[in-house]
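quick one, 249 residues, struct below
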Amino acid sequence: MIHSDRIPWLQTAHHELRAPLIVGTEQYQDASMAARVITAAQADVIITTCDPSGRKTAPLLSEIAAELGAYPATWIGTTSFATDSQSAVATAVALQERLDVSLIKLDVRTADNVPDDHQTLSAARSILDLGLEVDLMPLITADLAALRSVERLGCVAVRVYASEIGSMNGIKDPERIARFIHASTIPVVVECGIGCAEDVVLALRLGASAILVNTAIAQSNDPPGLARRLYEAAIGESERILSSQGTVR
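---
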């Protein structure tokens, strides 16, 4: 197990996550590069997806798994290609039934690539109504009413929108994100627009349980190198926070 000496930030009946940095894989056409980024980030989760419409491509689970060999990690399925609740539900069903993935990174986005809270919550309800045995981690805006709905649905964690997806603009409204994190009763992952080590450190200082970075790494000149630097920033800040709290990791 990676990070076996760290306290889990997510612990459910089926999943246990400890690493503070999550990295995306959807933007790589080359499974070997995706694998190099995952290992450089010391990620304990690997993101995979499928697109029932057939319009999108991404490295296959089997291709990444072959590159990683015995690397220990949990597979997370994502519905990031979904544009409405129906396509998100169809993707979640396909991920669970075809790939046996039971931790779902639930996304429904508008045409402007912004989280659609209403559609996302609708998809979450439908998935649960179908009786799928999955743990859900929805992406929503920093809206407290949407957060309460996510909590009531029994989602195991929530992912919050920091700034425009792919923008690398960082956390545009730190105070709002901090209020959201402190109001949440479930773990919070900060993502979208995270572009550098300073953004990672700020998210942790605001109280995030973990940070997800995708575009900044995928579009850098050295994806594994940036993944490693972000990992070191995340681990360093996590250790500093734990030390200041007198917590044994």
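The chain has one domain: 10-161+173-245.
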